[in-house]
Design brief:
Helix content: 25-40%
Distance between the termini: 40 Å
Strand content: 15-25%
Number of strands: 32
Radius of gyration: 25 Å
Length: about 650
């Protein structure tokens, strides 16, 4: 089932967020203002123009709030739609509010001052109920939404709104979809497509962000691109109504990584996690994984970005298209590359791609084991080990003492970007080498500093602080930081995540923006179409997601809870077990539906935490006392490691 279901009132129409559309009837209503000349302004509101502040938006449209402006006059809309047939709206402004609708047979629009009701003619609803309904819906929305505080400030709100405001209905598909940005995909909002488009890695990152909001919602997003795969299993770079499908190329293989992460975060053990998410995506992701080595073998038998020749598409099988498969369209890493028609790839083997494919295999193997496909799990594990050993050897540059992309002539390419941290995500180096690589790459003049992980190193000859030539991109940062966390390089991951969180919050608090990309220098304003940074792109929420992982992170061996060193809170996270809240203050406290699961001193780190119907287990490190619900009275750690396991009734296991 698609979540939200395509029925009732919601901001389904990609062209407007200052109104709602009803499904399946297609009835619409939208709101605007009159300008100084008395003309109605209804079409001038986009993420780039006229947005003042986004309010909360529930997944189902039962509550949404937004403030826009035209000519210095603000309009605040509070809307209560949802699965039913009645829409209540309060439209407040010092100017003249314009209401437009088609005056459809069988429907009525009632207006009383600021309040508007649209309902079937035989509905018993009255416009005078608007105030009470709005307050009821607001309270229900507040009770269900994830929240954050302290160090995170309003990051959870920003993350949520960047997803829910972008869910639309595609009439030609008759489907609800969530592109990464409604502005980006709509020509009428200065976008690049007709009325919808889906992109491969955008979709999976959007689904991962949505998993913080609602598990069913995230599952629908993760699966929405899979039906567009070709017969060989290739998930296309893009599919859209107006520009069709990119049959020549794909995008970075991040599907299994993000799906597994969302799955793990959905519960405290496999008993309560969303198995349906794995079932809905596994076969498609496995076919996509196997497509890469069959179609993208480049120099030295390693994986390389490519583009296949497609009849009738003169731009296919070109270097430009191979760059687009990387997702890093104009990255300096590929400035000197060439297209090899024999392999349909670049003549440059990419360390980041090979590392992602190894990590993809590991994630798929984990999914396979959960689903009982042990034979495939064994195959993927063996393939990952072989690919890791080969790639780690060939991409290693003895001179740089780091990994580098590999040219066809056997030399290593000098360009440096965060993708050279992806080998950590793929488990290429030993622990000491991983730490050395991180230290070197995260130096302030390379990829570190107050605005870390620019898309190319600051001391690279191609750095220009524009688009993929230096801006900071959340997907790239997410993958790089996950590599740091694989080796438990927490000093680095904490510093990087914290700096990126501040960047994320600055744009949100100043511009109500969750960016396509973020400025590499202080003082740069990315508002406006010409700046090439969409103002509400869901994957920007990954920067908040990364920071959340410093407090609470679901990992394959169980949950990790740690005090980040400053007061912080994540509340109301949607798990299959209930609603999880993690608070770092004088102590680190984890609760589930108000019941305290963990109460620890701030110097204690809890890892491998699992809570099944019969037992609880965890690993405790650091220093201090810990109380775990249902377990021993107090457990103390003093710089060592303690393993705790007990049955839920409290009897030692």
């Amino acid at each position: 089932m698609t979540v939200p279901e395509p029925r009732g009132w919601n901001t389904w129409d990609v062209r407007t967020h200052t109104g709602m559309t009803h499904l399946p009837s297609g009835l619409w209503v939208r709101f605007g203002l009159r300008d100084a000349a008395g003309a109605p302004v209804l079409d001038g509101f986009t993420w780039r123009n006229g947005l003042v502040r986004l309010g909360h938006h529930t997944v189902d449209g039962s509550f949404a709030e937004v403030t826009v402006e035209s000519g210095g006059v603000e309009l605040r809309l509070t809307m209560a739609g949802g699965p039913g047939d009645e829409l209540y709206v309060r439209a407040e402004s010092a100017g003249t509010v314009v209401v437009e609708w088609p005056d459809a047979t069988g429907w009525r629009l009632d207006r009383d001052g600021d309040d508007v009701l649209v309902a079937p003619t035989d509905s018993a609803a009255t416009v005078h109920d608007t105030g009470a309904v709005l307050e009821q819906r607001r309270a229900a929305a507040d009770a269900a939404r994830p929240t954050s505080g302290g160090w995170y400030r309003d990051a959870a709100d920003a993350l949520t709104r960047a997803v829910t405001w972008n869910t639309i209905h595609a009439p030609d598909l008759d489907r609800v979809i969530t592109p990464t940005s409604r502005d980006f995909v709509s020509v009428e909002r200065q976008g690049f497509y007709g009325s919808w488009a889906l992109h491969a890695w955008d979709t999976f990152f959007t689904g991962l962000v949505a998993s913080v909001v609602d598990r069913d919602y995230a599952r629908g997003i993760m699966a929405q691109i899979l039906p567009f795969a070709d017969a060989a299993g290739m998930i296309p770079n893009r599919v859209s109504d107006e520009r069709g499908t990119t049959w020549d190329r794909s995008q970075p293989p991040v599907g299994a990584l993000t799906v597994l992460s969302a799955y793990l975060a959905g519960g405290l053990s496999d008993e309560t996690r969303d198995r349906r998410l794995l079932e809905a995506t596994y076969e498609g992701l496995l076919a996509w994984h196997d497509w890469w080595p069959a179609h993208r073998r480049g120099p030295h038998g390693l994986l390389a970005w490519g583009s296949d020749p497609v009849d009738g598409d003169p731009e296919s099988a070109t270097l430009d298209r191979t760059k687009r498969e990387s997702g890093l369209d104009d990255s300096p890493m590929y400035d000197e590359a060439a297209y090899d028609p024999a392999t349909h790839t670049m003549d440059l083997a990419d360390a980041g791609l090979n590392a992602l494919h190894v990590a993809d295999a590991e994630a798929l193997a984990a999914m396979a084991r959960i689903l009982g496909d042990d034979a495939t799990a064994a195959r993927l594990t063996a393939e990952a080990e072989d690919a890791r050993a080969t790639a780690a050897k060939l991409f290693w540059d003895d001179t740089a003492r780091q990994y580098r992309n590999l040219r066809a002539d056997g030399s290593h390419d000098p360009h440096v970007s965060p993708t050279l941290l992806y080998p950590l995500l793929g488990g290429f180096p030993d622990a000491a080498t991983a730490a050395s690589i991180a230290d070197a790459l995260l130096a302030p003049d390379v990829l570190g500093g107050d605005r870390p992980l620019p898309s190319v190193a600051r001391n690279d000859s191609g750095f220009a602080a524009t688009y993929w030539r230096g801006r900071i991109w959340a997907p790239m940062a997410y993958l790089a930081v996950q590599g740091l966390r694989r080796y438990d390089l927490r000093d680095h991951s904490r510093a990087v995540s914290g700096a990126l969180l501040e960047l994320f919050l600055a744009e949100w608090e100043t511009h109500s923006a969750v960016r396509e990309n973020y400025p590499a220098f202080d003082g740069e304003d990315l508002t406006g179409f010409q700046q090439r940074s969409d103002g509400l792109m869901a994957w920007g929420g990954l920067l908040a997601h990364l920071a959340f992982g410093e407090l609470a992170e679901a990992r394959p061996d169980g949950w990790r809870f740690a005090h980040p060193g400053v007061p912080a809170e994540l509340a109301n996270l949607p798990l299959g077990d209930g609603r999880l809240t993690v608070t770092a203050a004088d102590r680190l406290v984890v609760t589930l539906d108000g019941v305290v699961l963990i109460d620890a001193a701030p110097g204690v780190v809890v890892t491998a935490y699992r809570r099944t119907s019969t037992e609880v287990s965890a690993v405790l490190t650091g220093s201090g006392d810990v109380r775990i619900h249902g377990g021993p009275e107090v457990v103390t750690v003093d710089g060592g490691t303690r393993h705790v396991q007990f049955v839920r009734e409290g009897t030692p296991a």
